[in-house]
């Protein structure tokens, strides 16, 4: 059964969601990400995807104090991403309570550094962030799109030890119009056994069922929760069924 991971994206210390990665579409859903995380924890959620959107835009960690507060006040296993570019960024993220970190732009722009992190911290703590716009890798807070096709990009990293990948199809992210199921099928066909986390476009429990049928191990859900399309209780029920 697929694991559902709730998401919190942070801008200016607030819980927000974007549409297709456009900062101009930012909508605030809560002034207190810590309170939101506590609600997820109280409902029995085990994991949290926490994204520093300020950090993604600034190319260095920014909202580490929010990470620290969420880690201190909840038992959630946090994967943290957004603007992690330096060894110091990683050190701060781990010291502030991240169990795992996601490297996206750094994996595209500086393969040697990403592989250094993978070697130093291990594949259980380093997640490859492989986000795409129309099948091409995007980076720098999704403001830049490369010529690299996402599937061989992921496969190349899987060959050198990456075992966890979070992949967003930006074209559907924040739209609630349905996830890029066929993209995830292609990735898993090329990299069987990969712990692949789908992200973007989920608008209903039916969307999650489609991903489950495609054997996707986990999915990140954000706007669908905040817009009332999927309840925290739904997430708790699915995740508890795996215990």
Q: Short description, anyone?
A:
By secondary structure, the protein is an alpha/beta fold. The chain has helices at 33-42, 53-58, 64-73, 87-95, 105-109, 111-121, 150-158, 181-190, 205-213, 223-226, 232-240; strands at residues 3-11, 14-19, 22-30, 47-52, 77-81, 100-103, 126-129, 131-133, 136-139, 144-149, 164-168, 195-199, 218-221. Strands 1-4-5-6-7-11-12-13 form an eight-stranded parallel beta barrel, surrounded by seven helices. It has a three-stranded antiparallel sheet with strand order 8-9-10.
Protein traits:
three-stranded antiparallel β-sheet, 243 residues, eight-stranded parallel β-barrel, alpha/beta
Tally the beta strands.
13
Counted by DSSP, the helix tally is 11
Approximately how much helix is present in the residues?
25-40%
Mean pLDDT: 92
**Structural category:** alpha/beta
Characterization of the model:
With 243 residues, the chain is an alpha/beta fold. 38% of the residues lie in helices and 29% in strands. The chain contains 11 helices and 13 strands. It has helices at 33-42, 53-58, 64-73, 87-95, 105-109, 111-121, 150-158, 181-190, 205-213, 223-226, 232-240; strands at residues 3-11, 14-19, 22-30, 47-52, 77-81, 100-103, 126-129, 131-133, 136-139, 144-149, 164-168, 195-199, 218-221. The strands form 2 sheets. Strands 1-4-5-6-7-11-12-13 form an 8-stranded parallel barrel, surrounded by 7 helices. Helix 8 links the parallel strand 11 (164-168) and strand 12 (195-199). Helix 1 (33-42) packs parallel to helix 3 (64-73). It is globular and about 40 Å long. The model has no long low-confidence stretch (mean pLDDT 92).
């Amino acid at each position: 059964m697929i694991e559902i991971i709730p998401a919190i994206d942070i801008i200016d210390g607030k819980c927000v969601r974007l549409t297709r990665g456009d900062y101009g579409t930012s909508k605030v859903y809560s002034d207190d990400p810590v309170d939101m995380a506590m609600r997820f924890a109280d409902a029995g959620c085990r994991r949290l995807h926490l994204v520093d959107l300020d950090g993604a835009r600034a190319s260095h960690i920014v909202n580490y104090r929010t990470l620290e507060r969420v880690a201190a006040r909840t038992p959630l296993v946090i994967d943290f991403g957004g603007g992690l570019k330096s060894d110091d960024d990683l050190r701060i993220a781990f010291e502030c309570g991240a169990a795992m970190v996601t490297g996206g732009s750094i994996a595209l722009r500086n393969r040697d550094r990403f592989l250094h992190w993978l070697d130093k911290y291990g594949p259980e703590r380093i997640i490859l962030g492989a986000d795409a716009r129309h099948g091409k890798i995007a980076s720098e807070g999704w403001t830049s799109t490369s010529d690299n096709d996402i599937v061989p990009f992921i496969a190349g990293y899987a060959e050198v030890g990456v075992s966890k990948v979070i992949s967003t199809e930006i074209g559907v992210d924040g739209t609630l119009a349905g996830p890029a199921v066929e993209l995830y099928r292609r990735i898993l066909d090329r990299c069987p056994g990969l712990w692949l986390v789908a992200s973007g476009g989920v608008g209903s429990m039916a969307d999650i069922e489609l991903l489950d049928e495609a054997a996707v191990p986990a999915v990140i859900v954000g706007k669908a929760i905040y817009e009332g399309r999927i309840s925290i209780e739904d997430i708790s029920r699915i995740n508890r069924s795996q215990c």
